[in-house]
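Hi everyone,

Forwarding the result from last night's run.
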Amino acid sequence: MIKVSANLSKKVPMPGVEYSSQQFGASLEIEVSDADKPESIKARIQELYRLLTQTVDEQIAGASKPAPASAASQPEPAAASTTPRWKQTGNAAKPGNGHQPVPATAAQCKAIEAICSKLNVATADVLADYKVNAVNALTVKQASKVIDALKKEQANRR
């Protein structure tokens, strides 16, 4: 058997927010027989790409849903040297600067939950420093930092 892994991601500008974009992505893994003919393998890879594209396009279409009200008022966590890697610090949008915090995308929420599950880490522990009870209450910026830190933790465990 041959394993074929594919990842697809797209960055989409965020309306009304300068120099920011949302990233949407999907990955999929399939197995093909090494006895399959090249044309058959090529057809399966093309179908894989079509499914990934469709999934990412659906994520983008679903991202235009209104934001939860609680996400806009949540502060960033304070830094601490003894905190796990997923607890990152950053600057929240400052009042009066004309920028409203943008809520985490559905793809970000799904990624955080999936990575926490793979790492066997309670999502509530990750969210505690952000003073939110749900992943979708994070801002895009917070969610991005959490994902980056969780991915680093994942890489360190390999």
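The radius of gyration is 18 Å.

Cheers,
N.
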